Amino acid sequence: MVYTSQQPTTRTTVDTRVNSRPEQIDFSALLDPSLLQSARHIYRTYYEVHPDQTGRPIGIAIDRFTHRGKLIFGAKPILLPQECFVPVAQIESDLY
Fold it and tell me: Residue 37 and residue 8: Cα distance in Å, rounded?
């Protein structure tokens, strides 16, 4: 006699919307111009004060109301509810 185990087959559905999202998001249409200007000012000031800094930030976390911000050097920014993220590519696009 041969015994076989038969397990019920269950199908799982995968949400394909997550996989179809583009990796790059155009932030230019989403940002308030005054926030972008403040982010550029923060970026320029940081590099004027620290000219020997070799690490490149990924962007700036900036408060929407006070326009105070911090450079982000990690892989994924963690933002407070009133903050938004401005990527360095967006900041540098008009500096040069």
Answer: 59
Which is nearest to 95 in space by CA: 27, 47, 25?
A: 47
pLDDT in tens, 20-40: 444 555 544 567 899 999 999
Q: Which residues contact 59 (CB under 8 A, 6 or more apart)?
A: 71, 72, 77, 85, 86, 87, 88, 90, 91
Overall size of the chain counted in residues: 96
E strands in the chain: 59-63, 69-72, 83-87
Tokens standing for residue 53 = 């800094």
CB 35 within 8 A of CB 84: yes
Instruction: Give Cα separations from 49 to 29, 72, 86 (angstroms).
Output: 30, 16, 20
